[in-house]
Amino acid sequence: MNTSVQAPANLQTPQAAAPAAVREQPAVVPPVDIFENEHAITLVADLPGVSREGLNVRVDGDALVLEATATSQGPADLELVYGEARSPVYRRQFTLSRELDAARIEAKLTDGVLRLTIPKAEEAKPRRVQVTVG
Known about the structure:
By secondary structure, the protein is mostly beta strands. It has one helix and nine strands. The longest helix is centred in the first third of the chain and has 4 residues, at 20-23.
């Protein structure tokens, strides 16, 4: 298996790169599964409580940065008098291999699960070499 994304367990976005509002809270490192086939790398990140508006995915040089803020909302007609569930800030950073085409990343957020598909560059894909007899 070719490891095209380097993913240390606790790698976080540098504080200088995060917006001021995000830096105020300690970040939770979201769990991520990484899958690979001959065409792409797929990252699946668990981000419970995160909406599309609270999600920031960006490529900065060779770094893929995930930042998100979860929101927890109760019923509109009730007032919260005691709460233990906090709205966490998620932050995770990955180093992208040059074998990947960062310009063609596809992202989909469904029910708090972010799926990023990062295609491999054409020159990095396996190819069959035609052999002639002669």
